[in-house]
Amino acid sequence: MLTPLQAIKKKRAEAVNRIVSKGYLSTKRVYVGMATCEIAAGSKEVMEVFRQAIAKGLTDIYLSQKGCAGRCNLEPTVEVVEEGNIPVKYGRVTPQRAREIVERHLKKGEVITEWVI
Amino acid sequence: MRDKKFKLTLCDGTSCIHNQSKALQQALQAELQRHNLTEAVSVHLSGCLGMCSKGPILIVNPGYILYGRVRVEDIPEIVESHLVHNKAVTRLIITEDHLYNRFFRIFGDVDFFGKQMRIALRNCGIIDPENIDDYLSLRGYEALAKALETMTPQQVIAEVKQSGLRGRGGAGFPSGLKWEFTANQDGDEKYVICNADEGDPGAFMDRSAIEGDPHTVLEGMLIAGYAIGASKGIIYIRAEYPLAIKRLEKAIVAAREHGLLGEKILGSDFSFDIEIRLGAGAFVCGEETALIHSIEGHRGMPRPRPPYPSVVGLFGKPTLINNVETWASIPVIILDGANWFGTVGTETSKGTKVFAVAGRVHNTGLVEVPMGTTLREIIYDICGGIPGGRAFKAVQTGGPSGGCLPEAYLDTEIDYESLAKAGSIMGSGGMIVIDEDSCMVSLARFFLEFTQDESCGKCTPCREGTKRMYEILTRISEGNGQDGDIEKLERLGKMIQRSSLCGLGQSAPNPVLSTLKNFRDEYEEHIQSKTCRAGQCAALLSYTVNEKCVGCGACRRVCPVDAVEGTRKEMHRILQDKCIRCGQCYDACKFDAITKA
Amino acid sequence: MSEKIPIFINDKEYNVEPNQTIMQAADTLGFKIPRLCYHPKLSIEGACRVCIVEVEGQRNFVASCAFPVSPGMKIKTNTHAVRRARRDIVELIVDNHPMDCHTCERDGNCELQRLAAATGIRARHFEGQRKRYDEDLSSVSVIRNPEKCILCGRCVRMCSEKQQVHNLTQAHRGFNTVVMPAYDLPMAESVCTACGQCINVCPTAAFLEKNYTQELFEQLNGTDTVKVVQFAPSVRAAIGEAFNLPPQNMEGQLVAALRKLGFDYVFDTQFSADLTIMEEASEFLERFQNKGKLPMITSCSSAWMKCLEQFYPDLIDNVSTCKSPMSMQGAMTKTYFADKMGIDPKKIYSVATMCCTAKKYEAARPELMFDGMRGVDVVVTTREIAWMIKSAGIDFVNIEPEKADHPLGLSSGAGAIFGATGGVMEAAIRTAYELYTGQTLVDIEVEGVRGLKGIKEGSLKMDGHDIRVAVAHGLGNACKLLDVVRKDPDRYHFIEIMGCPGGCVGGGGQPYAAINTIPLDDEALTQRAKALYDLDRGKTIRRSHDNPDVQKLYKEFLQHPLSPVSHKYLHTHYKAKLPVGIIPKDAKNFEVK
């Protein structure tokens, strides 16, 4: 019988394993803001662009949603995290911008600086 | 900052100075010069970052990489590796940080987040709120496990009391005391309620917190359930928040699946479950006794206190009610300890507060700052000041029940007492910035329109009195103000403040009384000279044609009441007795030839 | 008793009982803090804010009705600030109230009027928009006038807490708040039981009975009808209050005044109370002996009958089939009396003077009709008849008492006590015991069923059988009792239910509370009941079956209790009513409107 702290540590380890098995250790992690405010600003469509890209063969990407970080006037926001590099956060991402992020940042590794917050 | 490649922030608090941060500054400057980086890198000093045990702290942005216990001899390596080669020096990065620090690693957004400190929102924008694994991976539910395994209920309450946490719903009652009162009540059945009935217009702190991190609310409630001996929790959330509700539902299901809700949680003897009740969107249901009535299935109306809900609450049982932000802070207090929490904030108000900043600022949004941050820091440093070069006029804190503070109060360090002293309230955290283009009479009228409409109608001062105040404000803004109206507003306002049944009524006159105090001359102008300096009160405006007029006739054509006369290519004229002050001529004129006054 | 605690009121120290509110403590010390929404029998609303006082250490004024005293508390009831706030609060109420006192039915009897005078409102500072609503005249019993409502919530609490009808509630918000039945139904279609308790507790004229006085005056002036009136037991006990007299039996004065008003025959509903006992006691024994449906529940109270039909349709078979005394009297007036006098029953104008608003509703019930006629053509309340007496210039206080007419005017003491809670039970016991055992019950004053306790229980030995009885007054208590019956149907044999607090003496048609008295307070109810018990004690005939006129009626017309003739004229039936908006579990048994 585990104590509560042992039990929660076991759960955490399992949780981390599950996250990792979903590809968390991919080269690039993409987070799309998906709170009510972000969705209202169009983040569902943005999310869809990334989903489509992965469906069409973009690999080595871990795609996840996240809540609102409070950056109301710059929503929707998309964050690209690359291990060892500085995370990049894009603001006012439209589906068009999202497609460019896929092409330029995710595929070619180019940070599109003018959209970075 | 945008033209700089990096921004370095060096902690310059007393403790860090002691730890030779001055020497670090010099070493840093020398090293930057050596690499010819002075142009590309800016160096800033910050106040205490609350991580003194790890100091001195150096933060590198973008990325908010946190280096701790930085020594002079580490500087060359940091500059060389991080600033030149863009590779962080992993051995110096603070890893075992406080829960709240985590966001530093992910937000690269220094302008906005530099002065923030996130406790309640520590996971918002970081984790996937619909995946319990994300929460678990970031020490989720560890505070619950810690409480269950290593603390007695009394110790949990003592910890919350010691932390100095105060209710974030508005009134700022010490949370620990509330917990203790409820725990001390005998009773086989007790309830824990999360008040997520966020009704202030423009406020979305609770929604954001739940949508971004629902589990922390559940964890806070679980810890309270253990502490006060309750086995049932209810989250009262307004039905207008469908996504928040969906995420809460998902979180509850996931927590049950993981044995974190239900019988014998984490193998202990503690059992607790949570259900969601939807509110129908009445502002007054944020008041705790009205909220309880609403859950019970009655009309949401407050009742006199005492008895307080901690004694006679839901279904007559002792009940502990806290709001979302309060609950979200609990796991941090349990995990990092009351002592640490107590280092954040001011003497009387500990921890952080979330504000929803709206109005005339560059960066509108949700900010969480330590208590004691000044209004100026929030408005200018975090939110980027007022756009368009216009002048700051006032800031309204505390939502529709709050007060309007003029420039003189900008350096007020925010806590419950200082805001009250200044004539406003903390409230649930609404903050609206107003510039010179806003009329204070109209503003007061706008807020009062809301509160008098949302009055539950139970007590006389609020039901009848706010209506009368609204009528007086309306006539003032329509140019029908009379001598004595200001005195009537004050007399009614003070009576309503002191006589109303609940907090809604007691605070409803605040916008009027605070603008009367700070902007009385604007009221007098409206009444005496029938003018509105902000040009917002349509009835007080007059439109005249000036010498720039070329006689194009555009104004004449758009005027809906034929109040413009004139022949082509000659200067036109506006007939003041016909004009309804709709402003269409003003908008139509391409030559700036119509004056609005 | 707990230790007294010191408090300071207006700088003077007093010792008071702990565990009470500031208002309660002040009341015992002779400080009557002005108040409006407060009512001692209802929960604390704290809504009107008129009773605010200053308490040292409290930032705001506190409502003295709700705030408990504590040792050393320093209370100020009359400072400039609190007086001004109180005055402004009352003005705010007055500002949103029609200024039609001269033409208002509550003129001179209005708590708001008194309060405005007491707080010294001589000028109005805050006048503005005033609420406008139409009167709801749909009900034959209770009319609702939201325009006069000051939202004290007394009616809402009375309707839900005491009566558990839950018809009235606040709706809408802020300035638009209004008290209404659910879904804004007209009163006639709502679940209102017409008990009229909202009228009793209303401080203004937001609730009134439907007034039939003008119609009645017109009829009394007509020459082609025979005008017959009856009056209920508790009318005589309370009508004096409308003439500033304490509660007392004013039967003789009432009979005289009714004759002066122009009635040809003045009968006493107490006669039919005796008749009801004959039928009801027989019905009970019939059920008891032949294993009929028990417990048997009385059916005299019209508000209670509507409550039953709506909320307890499963218990309809438990209810006695006897009509109420008023309806029996009406039936006997238009049959036995008409026949005896040789009058065409269609020419009889049958009037009932009742303590009750629901009787107006009852009189119009189609199932009570016989030979195509209504037994009672019009019902007026104690308040209405008192006004008519005043309006006709009759000196009620000094009038020479007279006696009611035969053959429907003589009554036993048992008939008199019908007006108080437990009275029907007591009267029934007196008769049933004798009918069953053949022996006369010696100790006829059944103390166990008297008094103002919400639910009273008792048992009686009849020939070795233990008869268990229960009495409830006020629909809320009735509901509690019936919930017990639903769970435990064998617990009682016989149950008396009265819809109003205290029974008929607390009826919805009784005179308004006088200055400085509280509507429906226990003191007034007890005094009214005492008048009836004294009337009983003063009579030589105290058992219904001993009433010679009742015996004569059976001999000449009805034959015997429960005879076919009785069944035709004195008994009825009830049918489940589906309240609008409530979906029953078993829909097919309900009559859907």
Model description:
The complex is a heterotrimer of chains A (117), B (597) and C (593). Chain A has 117 residues and is of the alpha+beta class. Chain A has helices at 4-21, 36-41, 43-55, 95-107, and strands at residues 28-33, 61-66, 78-82, 88-90. Chain A has four helices and four strands, in the order αβααβββα. In chain A, β3 and β4 (88-90) form a beta hairpin. In chain A, α3 (43-55) crosses α4 (95-107). Chain B has 597 residues and is an alpha/beta fold. In chain B, a hairpin with a 7-residue loop joins β15 (564-565) and β16 (573-574). Mean pLDDT of chain B is 88; it is low at 97-108. The model of chain C has no long low-confidence stretch (mean pLDDT 94). In chain C, α2 packs antiparallel against α3, α9 crosses α11 (325-341) and α9 packs across α15 (423-437). Classes of the chains: A alpha+beta (117), B alpha/beta (597), C alpha/beta (593). Chains A and B meet through α1, α2 and β2 of A and α6, α7, α10 and β10 of B.
CATH class of chain A: Alpha Beta
Kindly identify the CATH topology of chain A.
Answer: Glutaredoxin
Please, how many domains of chain B?
5
Instruction: Please list the strands of the largest sheet of chain B in the order they lie side by side.
Output: 10-9-13-11-12
Distance from first to last alpha carbon of chain B: 41 Å
Compute the average pLDDT of chain A.
87
What does the average pLDDT of chain B come to?
Answer: 88
Number of structural units classed as domains of chain A: 1
Globally, the shape of chain A reads globular
- The count of β-strands of chain A is 4
Q: In which order are the strands of the major sheet of chain A placed? A: 2-1-3-4
**Number of helical segments with 4 or more residues of chain B:** 25
Oligomer: heterotrimer
The major sheet of chain B is characterized as: 5 strands, mixed
The H-level CATH homologous superfamily of the largest domain in chain B, spelled out, is NADH-ubiquinone oxidoreductase 51kDa subunit
What portion of residues of chain B belong to β-strands? 5-15%
Write the H/E string of chain A, N to C: HEHHEEEH
Strand content of chain A: 15-25%
- Largest β sheet strand count, sense and barrel closure of chain A: 4 strands, mixed
